[in-house]
Specification:
274 residues, alpha/beta, Nitrilase/N-carbamoyl-D-aminoacid amidohydrolase, six-stranded mixed sheet, 14 strands
């Protein structure tokens, strides 16, 4: 299958988990998903982006939110990248975790955020995810009927080594649930997505929360899709809404043939482990 129709939902984070899950269902119900293959939501779409909130919102895999995602994927017959939620791990630790479900509602991927967002930008943003979160240990790539897909979360995507691992494992599309802020967003959001698309000759789908200036964390928004040539195919502004875009996976093959970066890699000089 060469053509993949995706639908991005850029939503505000509401006051309670229940409200956010209901909002997710309403977004999917109101949209025309009859010919959509993949639906995406943002990082922490159902939890305020505050370190103090992560423990209170955390659920085990298979919990109520997980079941909600599974049911929605099955109901609408779509692949669902269900943003991220705080996960209570079997080890008692809390992770920033992304789940993906297939058209039958079966979980086909799970990614725990590897790189925790601990930054202190002078005159800008201060945040420390490590106050309550633990880091994942694995790169994530999974199979779909339209090819292999790589999945990572927000700050993970700043590390080109991780992106290259996903490509080495066969990814043609990257899904990035994220929540860039008003400091890093204007500077790096589009630049980073375009850079990773060009370097790895893949489609990149970045999904962010809508901006809410009444919230404690102000998202940059601007969910977007970039093609393997580094062109922005479509991009939202900061407001709530949805975005539909078609990916032509034949372009991945064409770009890689005409500009064979991946074939020209010198693994003898700069190896990347699988």
């Amino acid at each position: 299958m060469d053509f993949v129709d995706i639908m991005i939902f850029q939503t505000k984070v509401l006051g309670t988990k229940k409200e956010n899950l209901k909002q997710m269902a309403e977004c999917m119900e109101k949209a025309d998903l009859r010919h959509v293959d993949l639906v995406t939501f943002s990082e922490m779409f159902c939890c305020p982006y505050e370190t103090s909130c992560f423990p209170a919102y955390a659920e085990e895999e298979g919990g109520p939110s997980w079941q909600w995602f599974s049911a929605l994927a099955k109901k609408h017959g779509v692949y669902l990248s269900a943003g991220t939620i705080p996960e209570l791990g079997e080890d008692g630790r809390i992770y920033n975790t992304a789940y993906v479900f297939d058209r039958q509602g079966r979980q086909i991927a799970k990614h725990r955020k590897i790189h925790l967002f601990d930054i202190d930008v002078k005159g800008g943003q201060y945040f420390r995810e490590s106050e309550t979160l633990s880091s994942g240990k694995e790169a994530t790539v999974f199979d779909t009927e339209f090819g292999r897909v790589g999945l990572c979360i927000c700050y993970d995507f700043r590390f080109p080594e991780l992106a290259r691992q996903m490509v080495n494992r066969g990814a043609q599309i990257f899904i990035i649930p994220a929540a860039f802020n008003m400091t890093t967003g204007p500077a790096h959001w589009e630049l980073m997505h375009r850079s990773r698309a060009v370097d790895n000759q893949v489609y990149v789908v970045g999904t962010a929360p809508a901006r809410d200036m009444d919230a404690s964390y102000h998202s940059w928004g601007h969910s977007l899709v970039v093609n393997p040539w580094g062109e922005v195919l479509c991009e939202m502004d900061e407001r709530e809404g949805s975005l539909r875009c078609t990916l032509n996976l034949e372009q991945v093959k064409t770009v890689r043939e005409q500009l064979p970066l991946l074939k020209h890699r010198r693994g003898d000089i700069y190896p990347v482990e699988f």
